[in-house]
Write a structure and sequence with these properties.
Elements: H1 12-20, E1 23-28, E2 41-47, E3 50-56, H2 62-65, E4 77-80, H3 84-93, E5 98-101, H4 103-116, H5 120-125, H6 127-138, H7 144-157, H8 163-168
Parallel strand pairs: 1-4, 4-5
Antiparallel strand pairs: 1-2, 2-3
């Protein structure tokens, strides 16, 4: 098949677990791969309520290749980080699946933005700014119907030095 090959590093048992899983977790090293190295793409399946790494360097074309195992690869729920390439691929490849993002990666994303805006010192040293940033991070834990109202509340009481962070949202 030339360059159209799908390279997957996994055992048959791991692939069966992945194909049978309704909930999968995906992650990649797209922005952290060193020069000269390709990014690694990982898939985790849910087993006994835990995410278990089952495949490495998997290509999204794997969905079509699942037929070799006599399976349809149709997870009902996909969780990922906030990498735009992954989010776009999930929507395209699994349009019927519910897609959610990881709390760890959400807070990490906000923290990186705080640092890139030059707010790191204030975040570390000014208790009110630290608290307001943590409240922003906590929005993802609230019922959806309350998020907008709480976002506005936090913005109203926040320091003007956080304006660029609020614009990021």
């Amino acid at each position: 098949r030339g360059t159209d090959r799908v390279i997957v590093h996994a055992t048959d048992q791991q692939l069966q677990l992945l194909l049978d899983s309704e909930m999968i977790f995906v992650d990649g090293t797209f922005s952290t791969a060193s020069n000269g190295f390709d990014p690694v793409f990982l898939m985790h399946a849910q087993l006994f309520g835990q995410g278990m790494r089952v495949a490495f360097n998997i290509d999204m074309r794997f969905k079509q290749e699942a037929t070799l195992f006599g399976k349809q690869f149709q997870p009902t729920h996909v969780a990922s980080d906030f990498e735009s390439a992954i989010m776009s691929a999930v929507r395209r490849v699994f349009p019927a699946a519910k897609h959610s993002n990881c709390l760890f990666h959400f807070t990490q994303c906000i923290h990186r933005k705080i640092m890139s805006l030059g707010l790191g010192a204030d975040y570390a040293q000014v208790a009110t700014i630290h608290q307001q940033c943590k409240e922003l991070m906590g929005l993802s834990l609230m019922p959806i119907c309350e998020v907008e109202q709480q976002f506005k509340r936090i913005r109203e009481i926040s320091s003007s030095s956080l304006d660029d962070l609020f614009e990021y949202f």
